[in-house]
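Supplementary Methods, section 5.1.

A reviewer requested that the exact input to the structure prediction be made available. We therefore reproduce it here, unchanged from the version used in the analyses.
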Amino acid sequence: MKKITTFNKLLFLFLVFIGVMIFARIQYSGNTRYLFLTWNIFLGWLPYMLSGYLKDYQNKAPYKKLILFSTWLVFFPNALYIITDLIHLQHTSNVPTWYDAILLFASSFAGMMMAFISLKRVEIFLGNIFSKKVVLIFVPVILFLGAFGVYLGRFQRWNSWNVINDPLALGLDIFNKVLFPHDNLKTWGITLILTALYSMLYFFIKIFPQAFPGNNPANANERPFKNDRFE
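The structure derived from this sequence is encoded token-by-token as follows.
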């Protein structure tokens, strides 16, 4: 039986906090407008959950590693996506704006943490297969693909499962945007902005421990990938 990590305990408390806020909002407003957050958080949890199996798959056959990684990558944008739910603040209701702002921020924060922890696990996973220099290229590419997936979800209303149940239409939409970039400047503008945001947040969080007294910045990045922990 695996030990429940401190992060998972805090994440659970955070999700309970969000759930209580959603329930209180429904009771106060008389509508279920923000109930969709529970579904979005669940979808954001999926890549976090999948990344937890990467350590167990470290010595599996290459095709099994590829399947797990590909599945994670398909669902990864869902965790990043939640930050775009902040647009719902523009809708008026009888609920105080500050309350909705806290609720949406808390949900976005939970999504970001699940996304970045899962990405760190993937980074460690890839670091045991490829060189560190190659992994440093992989990470921005993954964040770019994640940002593009967020665009497809928010603006084109595609879902991760459309890879299975409607791959042709999804593929044609993606192909059109790649083949005709000049006709899709909005697509790539939003994707690049989100990529920059996610990249800065991810690498900022990675070096965040160095800001505390007692941590040695000189040694923070010297540990080989194989010694990093997945928890």
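Residues 219-231 have pLDDT under 50 and may be disordered. These observations are discussed further in the main text.
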